[in-house]
Amino acid sequence: MIDHAHDLASVRDATERLLTAVGKLDNASVTESSRLPGWSRGHVLAHLARNADALVNVLEGRPMYASAEARDADIERDAPRSLDAQLADVRESAARFQDASAAPADWSRTVELRNGVTDTASRVPFRRWIEVELHHVDLGIGYELEDLPAEFTRRETDFLAARFAGHPDVAPTRLTDGTRTWRTGRDADTAEVTVTGPPADLLGWLAGRREGSALTVEGGPLPTLPPL
Questions:
Q1: Is the Cα torsion angle 148, 158, 170, 194 positive or negative in sign?
Q2: Is the pTM of this model over 0.90?
Q3: Residues with Cβ within 8 Å of residue 71, at least 6 apart in sequence
Q4: For residues 170 and 149, is the Cβ–Cβ distance under 8 A?
Q5: pLDDT tens digits, residue range 8-39?
């Protein structure tokens, strides 16, 4: 069972970690490249702020974004701002998300995200937690996949393994960190490939943040995953 209140508290904690870390930067650092191709750190921060507002839209029954073009244009518009402006926007948009999440609601209802994707409202806080944690790593300012909370790493690995489960272009794959196991890829009675590695490296590969060089693969090559 998803505990949305617990996840909202985790989002608050993750946001404070990010704001504290970003607050140590300067204006020049915000313009430098992030770990995401083609995006500066300012792009990442602008995306985080606009994503918070987009999830408010989701919770309140509106389209997540007016359009894909509007989403991209908003990020490009906001990316060049000063550090102070970026921090204020991330902080204020995060507060709007928390306020919207505090309103009385049926958390079992179905909501619509981007590209026709649907989910239960109760999972929206976890989706926001994903955005904050992974994009903190993407900033490239000293917060690594190994620094993620263990609960987050486990649950995000669960989430991504389920996302690729049944995908026709991904070989039937067994994932293990030596303690837990997951299945993903095409449906099959047995896995063709077994991928083993530390939790952070498994998550990094599934989330498109690492190429998988630290993973051990048996039964075939490391599967190529579709983009998220």
A1: positive
A2: yes
A3: 50, 54, 65
A4: no
A5: 999 999 999 999 999 999 999 999 999 999 99
